[in-house]
Amino acid sequence: MAISSITSSEAASQPSLSISPSIKSNYQPHLDGLRAIAILGVLCEHFNVALPLLLRCGPLSVRFFFVLTGYFITLSLWRVRDEMARSVNGSMMPLGRYYLARYLRIGPPFYLALAVGALLGIAEVRTNLFWLATFQTNNYIAWLGYWPDSISHFWSLAVQEQFYLLWPIVVLTLPRRWFVAAMVGFILFGLGFRLVCILTATSTITRWVTLFGCIDSFAVGALIAYLKQTRVLEKMQRLHRTILFAMPLVAFSCFFLGRALMTLPEDNLWLGMTESFDAIFLAWLLTVSLGGIGGCYGAILSWAPLVYLGRISYGVYVYHVFVIITVSPLLLGFGLSETSWAAARLAILFLLTIALSSLSWHWLEQPFLAWKSALGASSKPKPVPAPRGEPSFA
Q: Do the domain assignments include residue 391?
């Protein structure tokens, strides 16, 4: 599974891009509410909660976090590009701050979890520390051909870190006029990669965990970022009411179709379309969310406990598997298992995960975020006016 390490509140602190100077990045709590629902989908999957197939959204949660990451990171890199264009002599310092910010955001909880896992004697952590620490878990799992239970959830962090490292090459060098075409190309590439894997009988795990098989989800988020910054999303609200009515119907049809396709045999070519249908639903969901969600749905997604869960969701993801493998054997001594007193077992695992994640958020993650913000403010170069007639985002 996957988790986006960028919180909505963190993204809200970023200034708007020069492509559309009047657009402000205002904090939207319902995005954290959606993030909370996604992490609950991951927990249900890993806690082995018995749910109907159409409600099993663990894989969909993976894609949602990737889409969010593609959206926020693309906005962040456009800001970096703007700062580099305005700085004296084209300083690379903004790009350096970008990489440092990503490291300070995901590194501390991740490496703390690895250290604790090694101290607890988790064999798969100790023997694969190099793969884990260098964010190559996804490639290691693809090489193994099976899921190593205690470290398998780190595959998505590896994918995201690889995306963080490579995406600046795309965003900072790609001319604006080619951006949409490039994102469509990435979307088609991701689909094509999965189809080729099925046609060549390549391992299902390879299709799932490699960056090649996930790149289309990031590209969907990046494309939405482009539509947001060019005000296309605002214009979409003025579409004919028939189209606006049809959009959620199409989106939810893709949602249920994606769940149905998951039941197909591994050699069925249609299975490779699952993530593409999911992407259509998630693109609609993010687009609607960016426009603001009101009424009872907005009130639910902005509910304080749900928003808080969304804020600490990165820690929840990092720590929850270690909670399962260390605490579950202890609960067996009290007669709590997946078949006996299952609800009590789930409640204990969930509360312990939330408690650890909350401590991590307040005592580890937030101090590093504050340090990152202070460091960025102190090292930020003074901007100089951009050359007249030369756009800073081209």
A: no
User: Does residue 212 or residue 384 have the better pLDDT?
Assistant: 212
Q: How many domains does the chain have?
A: 1
pTM value is 0.86
pLDDT band at 377 (very low <50, low <70, confident <90, very high): low
* pLDDT at res. 74: 96
Q: What's the pLDDT score for residue 3?
A: 58
Tokens representing 42? 């991951």
Question: Which pLDDT does position 381 carry in this prediction?
Answer: 46
With respect to residue 260, please indicate whether it lies within any of the assigned structural domains: yes
pLDDT digits (tens, 9 = 90+) for 115-141: 999 998 899 999 999 999 999 999 999
Q: Is the separation of the CB atoms in 345 and 339 below 8 Å?
A: no
User: In this model, does residue 43 exceed pLDDT 80?
Assistant: yes
Please indicate, yes or no, if residue 3 is contained in any of the structural domains. Answer: no
Q: Are 183 and 35 in contact (CB under 8 A)?
A: no
In this predicted structure, the answer to whether residue 385 has a pLDDT above a threshold of 60 is: no
Q: Determine the structural domain holding residue 255 and report its residue range.
A: 8-379
Please report whether residue 386 resides in a domain: no
3-state secondary structure the chain: CCCCCCCHHHHHCCCCCCCCCCCCCCCCHHHHHHHHHHHHHHHHHHCCCCCCHHHCCHHHHHHHHHHHHHHHHHHHHHHHHHHHHHCHHHCCHHHHHHHHHHHHHHHHHHHHHHHHHHHCCCHHHHHCHHHHHCCCHHHHHHHHCCCCCCCHHHHHHHHHHHHHHHHHHHHHHCCHHHHHHHHHHHHHHHHHHHHHHHHCCCCHHHHHHCHHHHHHHHHHHHHHHHHHHCCHHHHHCCCCHHHHHHHHHHHHHHHHHHHHHCCCCCCCHHHHHHHHHHHHHHHHHHHHHHCCCCHHHHHHHCCHHHHHHHHCHHHHHHHHHHHHHHHHHHHHCCCCCCCCCHHHHHHHHHHHHHHHHHHHHHHHHHHHHHHHHHHHHHHCCCCCCCCCCCCCCC
